[in-house]
Design a protein that fits this description.
The strands form three sheets. Strands 1, 4, 5, 6, 8, 9, 10, 11 and 12 form a nine-stranded mixed beta sheet that branches. A two-stranded antiparallel sheet has the order 2-3. A two-stranded parallel sheet has the order 7-13. The N terminus is likely disordered. The protein is α/β, with parallel strands linked by helices. It folds into two domains: 125 residues, Periplasmic binding protein-like II (D-Maltodextrin-Binding Protein, domain 2, 3-Layer(aba) Sandwich), CATH 3.40.190.10; 127 residues, D-Maltodextrin-Binding Protein, domain 2 (3-Layer(aba) Sandwich), CATH 3.40.190.10. Helix 6 packs across helix 7. It is globular. The chain contains eleven helices and 13 strands. The termini are far apart.
């Protein structure tokens, strides 16, 4: 009886070694397409398209710049982003999503770019401040602050004067955005009270730093920052529920007709991002469009 158990145990052990050996071959990273790579190290498999939510200024600018938004037969603009795209509701969530998915592609503000993801070249140009400035990197958009035409708020006006000053635009550049010039040195009128700034999650990081720098000059004014999306920032400025809106896109005609007034505080590139382990470094703008409208669905198609 004891010998029988020993023989059975030996057979099970042998089978275990064989199973482990086969398993080791099938799960070696780079040979398994589910890991996003082939034997040569090229990323393969289904592309996981990530986009921003409706109302996001980054999404609005991205789909316009890449031709993902097109006019239909009636002349209406239609967003052709593939229906299966994973929707992220902020820059931070987009970064986390792409960083955690080897098959993913997404887009974020250039100023928010970090080493957690890889930024692709677009049409051969890397997403850098210099490339946006000289026009070689064409995926860029304005950062706007929005107020209502004809409204007057001395406290908000003082903060806006700081943003557009030499000191404010220095903060803009320190945060990786591109200044379009400044109005010279700032002298505060030292207003007090509270104002509210609402809108784009792309503009929010630089706005946070602008608030800190302003409060170092005038600590008597409380500036409350609420982050959501560009459309909310614009509509809140129009209806008076905030003092300053933030929008990472151009204003729409209907928003302007309702009294929205935009002031460009910076220019920002939009970086197209993939997972750090992705083998691709450069895509054309046409390839990115085809990915986002569903004409290209796998990384294999891009490697041909």
């Amino acid at each position: 009886m004891k010998k029988g158990f020993l023989k059975i145990g030996a057979v099970i052990a042998a089978l275990g070694v064989m199973t482990a050996a086969f398993a080791g071959c099938s799960t070696t990273e780079g040979n398994d397409s589910s890991n996003g790579g082939d034997a040569a190290g090229t990323t393969t498999g289904k592309i996981n398209v990530c986009s921003r939510e409706d109302g996001s200024g980054t999404r609005g600018a991205f789909i316009e710049l890449l031709g993902i938004e097109e006019k239909d037969e009636s002349g209406e603009k239609v967003d052709r982003t593939v229906a299966t795209a994973e929707i992220t509701n902020s820059t931070a969530v987009m970064m986390t999503t792409v960083a955690g998915n080897k098959q993913a592609i997404g887009y974020i503000s250039l100023g928010a770019l970090s080493d957690d993801v890889k930024a692709l070249k677009v049409d051969g140009a890397a997403p850098t401040v210099d490339a946006v400035k000289d026009g070689s990197y064409k995926v860029s958009r304005p950062f706007n602050i929005v107020t209502k035409e004809g409204s007057s708020n001395p406290a908000a006006e003082d903060f806006i004067a700081f943003i557009m000053s030499e000191e404010g635009q220095k903060v803009v550049e320190e945060e990786g955005c591109i200044s379009n010039g400044n109005n010279g040195a700032f002298t505060s009128k030292n207003p007090t009270g509270t104002i509210t700034v609402v809108g784009s999650s792309s503009v929010s990081p630089v706005m946070e730093k602008l608030i800190e720098a302003y409060n170092a000059i005038n600590g008597g004014l409380t500036i409350e920052l609420q982050t959501n999306d560009s459309s909310t920032g614009v509509s809140s400025a129009i209806d008076g529920t905030c003092d300053i809106g933030m929008a990472s896109r151009e204003l729409k005609d209907e928003e302007v007709s309702k009294g929205a007034k935009a002031t460009v505080i910076a220019t920002d590139g939009i970086a197209v991002i993939v997972n750090k382990e992705n083998s691709f470094d450069d895509l054309t703008s046409e390839q990115i469009k085809q990915i986002y409208i569903g004409e290209i669905t796998t990384w294999d198609e891009l490697a041909k």
